[in-house]
Each structure stands twice: as structure tokens, then as C-alpha cells.
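Sequence in, structure out. First:
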Amino acid sequence: MKTFKAGGVHPPENKFSADAAIEILPIPKRAYVLTSQHLGIPATILVKRGDDVKTGQLIAKSSGFISANIHSPVTGKVFKIEDVIDQSGYKRPAIIIDTTEDIWEDGIEPSDKIEREITLSREEIIKRINELGVVGLGGATFPTHIKMMIPEGKNAELLIINGVECEPYLTSDHRLMLEKGEQILIGTAILMKALGVSKAMIGIENNKPDAIAHLSILSEGFKGISVHALKVKYPQGGEKQLIKALTGREVPSGKLPIETGCVVNNVGTAFAVYEAVQKRKPLIERVVTVTGKAAKKPSNFMVRIGTPISELIEKAGGIHENLGKVISGGPMMGKALTSPEVPVLKGTSGILLMLKEESAREKISNCIRCAKCISVCPMGLEPYLLEKLTFIENYEQAESQRILDCMECGSCHYTCPAGRPLLDYIRLGKSKVSFLVRNRKKQ
């Protein structure tokens, strides 16, 4: 069975919501649309208080090369523009919209009718993906049109579609593959055309046999697209690990996947590309899993961007009396929320509700030199050393020890018997080293 070789762990999967069909969540009475829900520069607001907006209307424009357009996920009136707390706990500019009857912007086709014929040229596809604000839905939220613009001197040979969903608990991609499989494959074909490649590989972990079987049958009608079962191992969904598992190629330290001739996109991104190109529909909604041992009804919802997370929790049965933490994302790479009132973003894949006893941190003790953190690191790093170098503020040596190669998967933290806060310190060290690198480039 295909997989990556270096490191990795196998946490309990806990895919409680795997059999829960996607439900359409009601449109919120008030939507909170952040202008920074993509990697890069926040979008520039185009509307003001009191303006009427339609569903799918452009309300904030891309502000730079790495940025993305933001469209209204609802119809209504702009209540106000002010800073609201995002999923990181910081206040960010947001457009707050009081909703009315759902009326779509002219030219958008929101129906479920499948459009198979791809009529746009390569350039037109990239332009439309850019205009309609599509970003990577696997977690990084990198603007998708940028990935289609291959740097001079590089060559794209292969498109890889990530259907791994290796984070414990999360099932949004799994349900999307089962319920929107043909649209995902059409989106894959669109991305192939945009990249100018003739081959695409869809990687899915073998704990999703129904999705593997479903897409394998559908792919027979698409030239150059193949489906591949992968061994269950976290973090198989990382770009570098997925490329290694499917092709045997390795992305060099500090480099991007294009160095191997590969471009990686998530299945959710492929679906969003299908809707953008074939339906002229902006990225204004996505599938979000609400799950966990503190979730009364584990569910998968199709949610409008800007919906308060509290509304998803309420629809999934409400707050458990023994709730310990609400986490955006999975238990390995997700972030604990300061409030359930923060809004859904383009990158929100799941909401994990954890019981108090399972969310409490282990007592921290001295490192016992067991080297487990080294053995599980998928990037071949020494997490114990990076933690120590950050603690003593030796950022120059941390850089030389490749701290920026850390993908923040949390495998080291998960496996540490001493409860060391390895990932916390490495994240801090990465931010400090990144700051040093940026200043060095300015000189």
C-alpha cells in the first residue's frame, strides 16, 4: 500500500460523522464576512454601511499578488463594518450583513444540474478562478489561481488531488467525494486544462473504501484521471507526504511542490473550481464537519461563509454539558476557539467539540531523551532540539536546523511521553525565524 516513508503516526480515527449526509444549513440572520480568509494580503472592502448586497456579489477585492476576492454569501443590507474576533483569537476587519430573502447576483447558476462540457480556454479558466475568489480548501487557503501560474523555468507534469483527509474526526471531504464525485472530477479536468497537464492522480486513504470505489468508477469516463488507495497514516494529507506517497518524488527543503513537477489541490478545491468555472459561482459556501465526543449529533453541513459557528453547533444538537474545548479543524492541527460566535471562513473544514477530560493538557515533565519525536517527524527534523533552541532564543541555529521546514502536523507533540509543548515552541520559533528572514531580504 502506497504511503510516505519518514515518520508519521496513527491516532484513533473517530470518524463519527462519516455516514452523515451533507445537510444544507439555514442561512444565518446575520453574516460576519472577514476580509482575511485566505493566505496573503486581506481584501479591500468595496461596500459601506447601508449598502444592499446580493448573494455572490463582490464585496471585497484582492489587494495584491497573493490575495483573493471576497463575495457576499448572503442577500441583505450591510449592517456595519468593524473588527470581529477570528478563529485565531485576533480582531480582523469584517463586513457584517443582515440577511433577507436569498437573491443571487446575475449570471450565477446555483442549480445542481451538472455541466460537463469545459468551454473556457486555459487563460479564461485561471481568470475566472481568480475573479470568483477560489482558495485552497485543504487548510492553507492559498489562492488557487496562483498555483495555476507556473513560474518561469518550471514545468508542471502532474496534478495531484488530495482526498486523504487524514485528520482524525473530519469527514467533510469524504462526504463531498461521495455526494459530489462527478463535479469533483470535472473540476479536476478543469485544473488539468489550466495547468496544461494530461495526467491527474487522486489520493484517498483506504479507510474510505466507498469513496475510492465511487470515484474509481466515475473516473473511467475521464481521460488521464486515476484514483489511488493509500495506507492510513497521519499526516498523509501534507503536500510533500502525498507527493512522496504517489510518485516517490521528494520536495527539496525550502522548496515548493512544483520542483517535483507536481501541483496539489484538495478535493474541496476541485469542487469549488467546478462551481466557479461551470456555474460562475463564487466561493461563498463549503462543507463543514461538526463532530467530537462532545457532539450530540455528529454532522456534515453545507454552510454559507460568515455563519457563526454557534449556529452549526446548535444544529448538531447544541452544547454538551461537559464541553471542554471547541476547536476549528482537527485535533492535530486545529486551533482552540476563544468563542463559538466566530464565523465560518473559506478554510473552515470542521468544528471539533471535545470533552473536558480529553481536552486537558498533560502535565509537563522533563524530556526523557526517548527520541520518539524524531522518529515520528515526517520532515526528518529534531523537534526536541527546535523546542530548546526557541526556548533559549537561539533563532539563528533554529534556522540552520530547518525549523521553517516544520509543517506543524503535531506528530511530535502527540507522541511525547513527557507532555512537552513541542509544537507550541516550534510555532513560536518559526514566526521569529520568518521575521528574521524577511528583514534579511529587505537589507
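Second:
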Amino acid sequence: MTATTLARAQANLAQLIDNVNYTSSPVIIATDNGKNAVLVSEEDWNSIQETMYLYSIPGMVESIIEAGKEPLSAYTPYDPNEEW
């Protein structure tokens, strides 16, 4: 994660946003009063929100970890024509 000053961020905001979107690397924007902010891409922010939501569901993390241990051969391929 990189850092920049508020003045530098204001002067180069468009480029800063482009870089954050291209690299998916957040940028700390430091202020004189120590109340800093972090600039992240919208895509990364949405991912963070989804992760926080999944962590809030009791048992969800454990379920995902367990599912990740199962071999892919244990699953039936998706068939869009299958009737439920």
C-alpha cells in the first residue's frame, strides 16, 4: 500500500484513481491532523463488503473452507437445462 499527502492527492486525483483501479492497490491519503483516509477501487470495495458480509454469517467461513477441501470430481457439472 502506498501513501500520499492530501495536497498531492488533490493535484493528481484522476491519475491516482486510475492507478488504484489498475493496480488494485489502496492508497493512504495522509492529512495534517492525522485523520487519514484510504482510497480503494469500487471493485475492491465491493469485494471487501461481500467478504465482511460472509464473515458475519455464523458457520459460513467454516463451510467455505470445508467445501474447498473437497475434490472437484465430487461435484456434478452445471447443466443449464436441468430441471429442478
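Remark: Helices lie at 6-11, 13-23, 42-56, 60-69.
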